[in-house]
Hints:
The structure holds two protein chains of two kinds.
Chain A: H1 2-5, H2 12-53, H3 61-86, H4 94-110, H5 116-140, H6 145-164, H7 175-182, E1 184-185, E2 188-189, H8 190-208, H9 210-220, H10 222-227, H11 232-258, H12 270-280, H13 291-310, H14 315-339
Antiparallel strand pairs in A: 1-2
Helix pairs in contact in A: 2-13, 2-14, 3-8, 3-9, 3-11, 3-12, 3-13, 4-5, 4-6, 4-11, 5-6, 5-11, 7-11, 8-9, 12-13, 13-14
Chain B: E1 9-18, E2 21-31, E3 36-41, H1 47-54, E4 62-67, E5 70-72, H2 77-82, E6 85-88, H3 100-104, E7 112-113, E8 117-118, H4 120-133, H5 150-163, E9 168-172, H6 180-195, E10 199-203, H7 207-213, E11 216-221, E12 224-230, H8 236-244, E13 266-275, E14 279-287, E15 291-295, H9 302-309, E16 317-322, E17 325-327, H10 332-337, E18 340-343, H11 347-351, H12 358-363, H13 381-395, H14 411-423, E19 429-433, H15 441-456, E20 460-465, H16 468-474, E21 477-482, E22 485-491, H17 497-509
Parallel strand pairs in B: 3-10, 3-11, 6-9, 9-10, 15-20, 15-21, 18-19, 19-20
Antiparallel strand pairs in B: 1-2, 1-4, 4-5, 7-8, 11-12, 13-14, 13-16, 16-17, 21-22
Amino acid sequence: MNRAASAPGAEPSEGAAAAAARRREMVDRLNSILARYGLLVAFAVMILAFSLAKPDSFPTWDNTKSILTAAAPALIVAAGLTVPLVMQDFDLSFGSMIGLAGGAAVVLMSEDNWAWPAAAIVALALGLAVGLANGFLISYLGGSSFIITLAMGTVLVGLEYVFTDQETIFSGVAQGYIDIGQGEFLGLNNQIWIAAGIAIILWVLLDKSEVGRYMYAIGGNPEAARLSGVRIRRIRLTGFVIVAVCAAIVGILLTAQAASSVPNTGVPYLLPAFAAVFLGSAVFRPGEFNIPGTVVGVLFLGVIQTGLTMLQLETYVINLVQGAILIVAVLVSQLGQRAA
Amino acid sequence: MSPPAPPLVVVKGLVKRYPGVVALDHAEWAIAAGEVLGLVGKNGAGKSTLIKILAGATQPDEGEILIGGEPTHIHSPRQATKLGLSFVHQELADVPNLTVAENVELGLGYPKRLGVFLDRRRLRAKVRALLDRLGEEGIDPKARVDDLSVAHQRMVVIARGMAAEARLLVLDEPSASLSNEEIEQLHRVVRGLAEGGVGIVYVTHRLDEIFQITDRVSVMRDGKVVLSCPTDDLNKASLIAHITGSAEVAPEKRDRAVLTAERGEELLRVEGVTLPGVVEDVSFDVRAGELLGIAGLVGSGRTELVRLIVGADHRAAGRILVRGRDVRISSPSDSRRHGIVLLPEDRRRQGAVLDFSVRKNITLPVLPSFRPTRAVPLPQVRRERASARDMVSRLGIVAAGIEQPVRYLSGGNQQKVVLAKWLESGADVFIFDEPTHGIDVEGKDEVYRLMEELALAGRAVIFISSEFTELVGACNRVLVMREGRLVGELDGDDVTDQALVERCYADAAA
């Protein structure tokens, strides 16, 4: 291109200017492609790399199924979390909500002999109640979402211990309940179908529905949204309810899969969910939290986790590599974003 | 013919492209020390882009800037300050929770004791002296900036420029939302600074001001500087012709005869609306087909009054009656349901969702009308697009397309998008708070026409403005507010500039 611009015979100034403009346009376009699809490219490269390193075990149907099954609960909470994040609201309590919902359901079955559907419904109702409480405290009473949900998380851990006495419970979990987490449908674990269903519902909600548009408007400019007649308090509350109910579903799925309840199972899901949603905000619609992006973010993290484990690296190496990949992925997509 | 002193700033062949638009197209421009130069042009003509480049907020794609004859690359706002370029933007750039003194000296290195501790006394004395030099004895350096009036806040920014020893001061719509008296004071300050050798760029859409204050005028159109000449060589008509690029001249006054018909049904009645200390016991009504003006100086409680009416703020007392029925309005969504909408003054903070596209902003208040069927709340994007396109062409909104984020539009076009949002809302009562603020000549005319159309279609329109001439031109009845109270009502032929001025200032002047 340089050669063409300075070729003898061409009007030097005009030709150079046009070439410069064309070059700039190309750089812009490249940057915006990088911003939009950089994470997808990294994802593909990673899959390829793991497949080459472990050709017998990584690129197999069994492994794919196990990655997807492991990613399913992570996707459910991450998709739920995307909703309040769109409105610039944080939820740090959903990790504890997972533990509370699972613990409560198992205790009700094993100690109080409840039928499993009733126990599951109570778990979901707890999610609903906690979401309403968070939403009320934050959007109606004006608390900071960061602090309120942090505090709520502590409260929920306390409530979980009220149910479980901080003990691991293996017995008395109904088979019907266990089947929710262990059963299969069309060759795939139920959890995958449930996660896919929730992701689709939340995608339609955020991207296709009126409420979703209002949610993005609230995230962009709450005062303009309010003056446009958007009921922002009610909608923000809805966001907290959605993430809490998603967490309750995950609580049920995890205890069902394990056929037991272990204290505080949910907290490890907290940070990866945030990581996935933020990673996802770098794909498809740079700078905006969105469900398709979240799905990619969750799968990305799931593949790293499984791939690195298969390479039989020391745990500390896995931690280092996983952290480094995350940082690089986020930076690369944001660099592109700034240019675009 | 060449001036004796080297020009302060010269701009040569400046080009700036944004996705889909050429904001500056080989602009050539210059300003000398000690002159007041009026910079005018329609929204999107390139004024803001030129200013942003001088401020170091964005970089030109091509071209050259000479400062004091030296080619200079302005790569950051900090460097612009160092070069002696100072800017007073439309959106005030003070830190609201700091004091006047702390704002004026912000970033310039506060005076210190023992090299560490802030020496407040010396800081205040320094700023006091500066404000006195500007003739602003009334501003207390100890006051928090968010307690000041808009006019005083703007003075604080000007004082900051002086503290940084600015050689060039760019004022972007400095008179917006100021009262006539405040504008006169502003002009005195500007004159004083120019006599002291500072070059002043005065950006405004109020053409009267150009003739009052400037020595020279530069007109921008489509990213080019199409004219630079002494102000005395122009009159209002020829200036408008240069701005619009057409020979035809906008009418000075619009014919309001159509609106003087008998008053229709009462659509909105407000009784005893009060917020202590801000709005005191205000009552009025507005009828179908009426264009009711509310005049008043900034701080007279106009904006606060209408925010109380639509439930954006909570009133301490007062009733709202819609078509004679007492209604409960405690939030903007209640007000919207009862057919009353407010088009707010501060578009960036309250009007538009900047990251949303033109389409999504326009359809936000009326999203339910795009449902495929009543029970399915999934808006049909295709119909949204059609509606947005229609609005864009009706209001002459300049954008790369309806999917362009509003953030990238010029200020006046953002304002038009905010207007467009409400026009299809099917409301009965439209409250426009300073709708022409920052809009160019043609755009203003379009806004007047829109309000008129709404009134003719049997809606009630409330029009708030601090430009009395627009109220005189547009309204058949005008209420006057002063210090939170209704102090006068003018009807029909009694609505004159003179009468409005008298009532707004009546006691304040005494």
